[in-house]
Design brief:
about 200 residues, alpha/beta, Protein kinase-like fold, four-stranded mixed beta sheet
Length: about 200
């Protein structure tokens, strides 16, 4: 969980660096950091901790084609999350997608990453490859996609593009945190306020 969210966070930082300077783009989504805490005295010795998000919690990206989220489509945060997904998809040549974007306003948490079956640069996501296929089929570009100069997925779906010119060293794969705790050994996420 930490590895996936913090990897997505690194992509979001690069996205912000490209988007923020654009005239009229404004605030960009931020994926908040998540930390693995070791508590040896506790009967469940590991927990994840992150900043508490206060406000209306919204799911901006969908996990299946049946879910329709109007807040995703109509809100500024929702549109910018969709643009972030499109940006990552394009920068990784369709090999990786940050998905399950949700949070309060522009602060996001509990995200997922889908990769092609072979993974991407040694990284395998925690979501099904079908999320990539679904995104490619359902994504509708918005004004933020246009501002970033992203290619329409309607044409790339039919004709796979060549790799983008972005240098591979700029595409992050977090190596500092590895998932080592089995899912059933974790307890629900502890939320605390943080100054991060």
């Amino acid at each position: 969980e930490c590895y996936v969210q913090n990897t997505a966070r690194e992509y979001a930082k690069i996205y912000a660096a490209e988007a923020e300077p654009l005239e009229g783009f404004g605030e960009v989504p931020e994926i908040i950091p998540i930390f693995l805490v070791h508590r040896p005295a506790n009967n469940i010795p590991y927990a994840t901790v992150e900043e508490e998000l206060v406000g209306e919690f919204v799911k901006y990206s969908v996990r299946d084609g049946k879910e329709v989220n109007f807040l995703r489509r109509d809100s500024e945060a929702g549109q910018k999350c969709c643009t972030f997904q499109h940006w990552v998809y394009e920068k990784t040549n369709g090999s990786l997608l940050v998905t399950d974007l949700q949070g309060v306003g522009m602060k996001l948490t509990d995200v997922g990453i889908a990769t092609l079956a072979k993974g991407y640069k040694g990284f395998k996501g925690n979501c099904s490859i079908s999320f990539i296929e679904q995104f490619r089929a359902l994504h509708q570009c918005n004004k933020y996609c246009e501002m970033l100069g992203l290619n329409s997925l309607r044409t790339t779906h039919q004709n796979p593009r060549k790799a983008t010119s972005m240098k591979s060293k700029n595409l992050p794969i977090s190596s500092t945190i590895r998932k080592t705790v089995p899912k059933k050994a974790r307890e629900p996420r502890d939320l605390i306020s943080s100054e991060h």
